[in-house]
Design brief:
600 residues, 5-stranded mixed β-sheet, Endonuclease I-creI, 4-stranded antiparallel β-sheet, Glutaredoxin, alpha+beta, Endonuclease - Pi-scei, Chain A, domain 1
Length: 600
């Protein structure tokens, strides 16, 4: 579009003194609370106020897509905005005119009402991170790992150039390294061959996982990567199976030495003592989470929910979590149990309960002749543990597990919200009973059934929602209809006014939308929707009408002079004066009519 961009300084020249009528589009980028979490992918987020131009954000164009931030600015003149809260407790604050994606299409925030369904990407809970300046690895550590015979000055120089030495807890790459270390402790390996051959390799299931892992390696500055696609044929007893996978290899001695210095074992983890590195065990919670997420992505259990038949009783949602398992030779059983106990403690920091740790002797003899045992960590099957696995830790480098955990985590989030609400009602019933209100009065006051209140007060029944009507298979089908790539519909149960002293305005191209606190929101609302119409009109009225755009945030003088209170606002100027003002998105037919009248 060839319209003129005007400012406070050029408005008189370009608009007031123009020889032909001018249509001015007063526009701005729509806003969210500066504290809103904006997602760079399903896992990693950044507060809106910290978003900068050039950053890559996740959006949606029929499926998950990526956009680049082209504008980001904190505006101090906030005001009356909107709060939207879903049945799962996801909350967002944004300007009234900000568009949110719903089952009815894009809707302004102030038009959304209780009962509407909005599009949600079930992202992980955000976790703030501010690492300390504690040194984890320095040149001396690298030298000790390498040994006296290796000429390592070039490797140390390489790590310095890539800003990986000295490596401190507040290094910008520390979370990426935590993930990669987690992957190496599961389906990864450090291998050292003859003639100074060193290899970092990872086994992954899908091409999307390969893209994530290679992106992480490249972000560290390592680009000598090789990807192999392969199909393995395996056998367990009489059962033969095929396994399709990808192997990613990175041939870098400097990175190999860094990982060894970070505590990653070299060679076969089965036959050696392995422990979680101290810098992870004593590190920030975000470091622990990235390590665990990648570990679960490799060896972790996939979550599932099935309906369990209880004969004459209603079926219920049964959460299934397989054991986390790993193998050790028989002489390293104690080592394996210590490693399992360390994992149990890490999981416990995220509310994930381990019911028991135990070992099994393997039934089949290994081809390499080793006698081994399987160490099991059995997870508790309660909903809190399932939710914490899915959305407090999550799965990395495994899209299959990640997507399943997203849906299940959001379902459990809803059930836990129901439980909290039910418990709150139970406590209110007890409080009203102390005021000597009758069972009937309490039931009416709290909109509960008489039987429910009677059961709580007279029969000492527990406040439970074990037999609620929400069942996972039917729910999943409902909430994913018309969506894909992990998005789902979620009901709104609260909308109200909210005051924001400041707002953050963000523009993303080419998606023109982004994920904010899990909500799919438009980045520029009606202003973006008006643009295609103005582009058409500019061609049709070429030479007759001049088209101009003015950003109201950056040009307060003109905005104030013409009392522009809402955006988009369209004004037609003729002979130096405003002859027509239109607020909101205008149809092509309306604008053609108004422009033709001005031209008469």
């Amino acid at each position: 579009m060839a319209e003129v961009t005007v400012t406070d300084q050029t408005f008189d020249t370009e608009v007031v003194k123009a020889e032909i009528p001018v249509l001015v589009d007063f526009w701005a980028v729509w806003c969210v609370d500066p504290k809103t979490n904006i997602y760079k992918d399903n896992f990693n987020c950044i507060q809106a106020k910290l978003v900068t131009e050039g950053q890559s954000l996740i959006g949606w164009n029929g499926k998950q897509a990526r956009g680049i931030v082209t504008y980001s600015k904190t505006i101090s003149d906030g005001g009356h905005c909107r709060l939207i809260k879903t049945v799962a407790g996801r909350t967002i604050k944004l300007t009234d005119d900000h568009f949110v994606y719903t089952q009815k299409g894009w809707m302004k925030a102030d038009e959304i009402v209780t009962g509407d369904r909005v599009a949600i990407l079930p992202v992980r809970e955000s976790l703030s991170f501010r690492g300390s300046g504690t040194i984890i690895v320095d040149a001396r550590t690298i030298i000790e790992i390498a040994g006296p015979k290796m000429k390592i000055s070039s490797y140390i120089d390489d790590l310095h150039k890539k800003e990986l030495l000295p490596l401190t807890e507040d290094n910008p790459h520390i979370l990426t390294l935590s993930r990669l270390v987690g992957a190496l402790f599961s389906d990864g390996c450090l291998y050292q061959g003859k003639k100074d051959y060193r290899e970092i390799s990872f086994v992954l299931g899908r091409i999307e996982d390969v893209e994530k892992l290679t992106s992480d390696l490249k972000s560290l500055g390592f680009t000598r990567l090789h990807v192999q696609e392969r199909t393995n044929i395996g056998r367990i007893g009489k059962r033969v199976f095929r396994q399709h996978s990808f192997r990613v290899k990175c041939l870098s001695t400097s990175l190999y030495l860094l990982f060894r210095s970070l505590g990653v074992p070299g060679g076969n983890k089965l036959t050696q003592s392995v422990s979680i590195p101290l810098w992870i065990k004593s590190g920030a919670k975000a470091i622990k989470r990235e390590f665990l997420a990648a570990l679960l992505g490799g060896d972790g259990p996939k979550l599932s929910i099935n309906l369990t038949d209880r004969s004459k009783k209603l079926p219920y949602n049964h959460l299934s979590i397989n054991d986390y398992e790993f193998h050790k030779t028989e002489d390293l059983v104690e080592d394996g149990l210590e490693f399992a106990d360390d994992l149990k403690n890490l999981f416990g920091e995220f509310g994930i309960k381990i019911a028991k740790i135990f070992i099994d002797k393997e039934r089949y003899k290994r081809r390499d002749g080793y006698k081994t045992v399987t160490v099991h960590l059995r997870f508790s099957r309660d909903f809190h543990t399932g939710y914490s696995l899915a959305q407090k830790v999550g799965y990395y480098y495994c899209r299959t597990k990640e997507e399943a955990a997203g849906y299940i985590g959001e379902f459990l989030r809803i059930l836990l919200a129901k439980r909290r609400n039910w418990q709150s009602l139970y406590e209110k019933v007890l409080e009203l009973d102390k005021q000597r209100l009758s069972v009937k009065k309490i039931a009416e006051k709290l909109n509960l059934s008489y039987d429910t209140v009677f059961g709580w007060l007279k029969l000492s029944k527990k406040a439970t929602v074990a037999y609620h009507l929400l069942k996972f298979p039917q729910w999943l089908k409902e909430v994913t209809t018309g969506l894909n790539d992990g998005l789902l519909w979620q009901g709104v149960n609260i909308t109200r006014k909210a005051y924001l002293p400041a707002v953050q305005r963000i523009t993303v191209a080419p998606t023109h939308n982004f994920i904010a606190n899990g909500f799919l929101v438009h980045n520029c609302g009606p202003c973006q929707m008006q643009n295609p119409i103005l582009e058409e009109l500019e061609k049709e009225f070429a030479g007759k009408v001049k088209f101009a755009k003015l950003n109201v945030d950056e040009n307060p003088t003109v905005t104030s002079k013409y009392m522009v209170m809402s955006i988009p606002t369209l004004m037609i100027f003729k002979g130096g004066s405003s002859v027509k003002q239109m607020v909101g998105v205008q149809s092509k037919e309306v604008l053609v009519k108004e422009l033709n009248q001005v031209l008469q």
